[in-house]
Design goal:
Elements lengths: L15 E4 L9 H8 L5 H9 L4 E2 L15 E4 L14 H9 L1 E4 L3 E6 L15 H8 L8 E2 L8 E7 L2 H12 L4 E9 L8 E3 L2 E7 L2 E6 L7 E9 L3 E8 L6 H8 L13 H9 L7 E9 L3 E5 L7 H4 L2
Parallel strand pairs: 7-14
Antiparallel strand pairs: 1-3, 2-3, 4-5, 5-7, 6-7, 8-13, 8-14, 9-12, 10-11, 12-13, 14-15
Helix pairs in contact: 3-4
Length: 315
């Protein structure tokens, strides 16, 4: 047996079989499991699906599988730490609570700070969703992300407070019934005649071991509308409206035109990024400014880009 160590029973959850109720119908399997295994990293959830330890109605299922009312989900034993969930630092929890710009019984709109991930994952111990669940009572276990922002993107982030709201809001997104606008600073002077970018994007290509997106006709359609707002000597301020929400869409589209986003370490100009950082303009300059949609009334949420972005235009 050598190096094999037994795991005390107190550190493993029992096998469970859970029937999906109406409130969870339509939810993705991975999100269902994240609620069922509170505190377990997303990477473990994906492994449990990949190895077939999680079963839906007796069969294997992928993380993206949509569950139906009455489905039976087998939850395998998983190891948990004796202290329970990994605790998010109180300072971050407080910072995110202070960043909430709207909340009612159905949803939360947060002005997500740049540099904070939306959820835990590979190399990320915790994110927005983990912090807000920790800050609230047991009912917060139903709190979930409606969409995502890249870790280094700031601005409007939408969260649902119960499964029905999450399902309906995601359906709005899928039907392109949500208006999404961003502000960005891009390197150089953006050409005035480029007002629409329509280039298909293929995600999950590997570059140096990282997941990226790239323009590729074999990918999914992606449309970005661009308005030039202001131009400095070394960069241009843009307003962007996206019809689609592909991975890294704005970052790839602007870089493809030859004007990557200031501070973008994945698709940008590393030398220029260092120069801007040296002048005090650190981080990626991409901000979600607006979410607007009709759901249980007209909803419109706006958050201005950071005021110090004006400094970059003066360089």
């Amino acid at each position: 047996m050598g190096n094999t160590r037994s795991v005390p029973d107190s550190q493993r959850t029992p096998v469970r079989r859970v029937t999906v109720d109406a409130g969870r119908a339509g939810q993705r399997l991975d999100n269902f499991l994240l609620h069922a295994f509170a505190g377990v990293p997303r990477s473990v959830i994906y492994r449990l699906c990949r190895t077939g330890e999680v079963r839906v109605n007796g069969g294997r299922a992928k993380p993206a599988t949509r569950l139906s009312e009455g489905d039976e989900v087998r939850l395998p034993p998983v190891r948990i730490s004796p202290s329970g969930e990994r605790r998010v630092p109180d300072a971050l929890v407080h910072r995110l609570e202070q960043a909430i710009v709207f909340e009612d019984d159905d949803l939360i709109v947060l002005n997500k700070p740049a540099g904070v991930a939306v959820h835990s994952g590979t190399g990320v111990a915790f994110g927005v969703i983990d912090a807000l669940r920790q800050a609230r009572d047991d009912a917060a276990r139903q709190l979930d992300l409606v969409h995502r922002l890249d870790r280094d993107t700031s601005g409007c982030l939408l969260l649902a407070k119960h499964p029905m709201a999450n399902r309906e809001l995601k359906q709005l997104l899928a039907s392109r019934a949500v208006e999404k606008r961003y502000t960005a600073l891009v390197l150089g002077r953006w050409p005035r005649d480029v007002r629409r970018i329509e280039k298909a994007l293929l995600k999950n290509r590997q570059r140096g071991g990282e997941r990226v997106s790239a323009v590729d006709e074999a990918g999914r359609d992606a449309v970005t509308h661009v308005t030039r707002v202001d131009a400095g000597t070394r960069c241009t301020r843009l307003e962007l409206r996206i019809e689609t929400g592909r991975t890294h869409q704005i970052r790839v589209h602007t870089a493809g035109v030859g004007h990557p986003i200031v501070g973008d370490t994945k698709y940008g100009d590393h030398r220029a990024n260092r120069q801007f950082a040296g002048a005090g303009c650190r981080g990626m300059h991409l901000h979600s400014t607006l979410l607007a949609f009709c759901w249980r009334g007209e909803r419109r949420f706006e958050v201005a880009a950071p005021a110090d972005w004006a400094d970059a235009l003066k360089l």
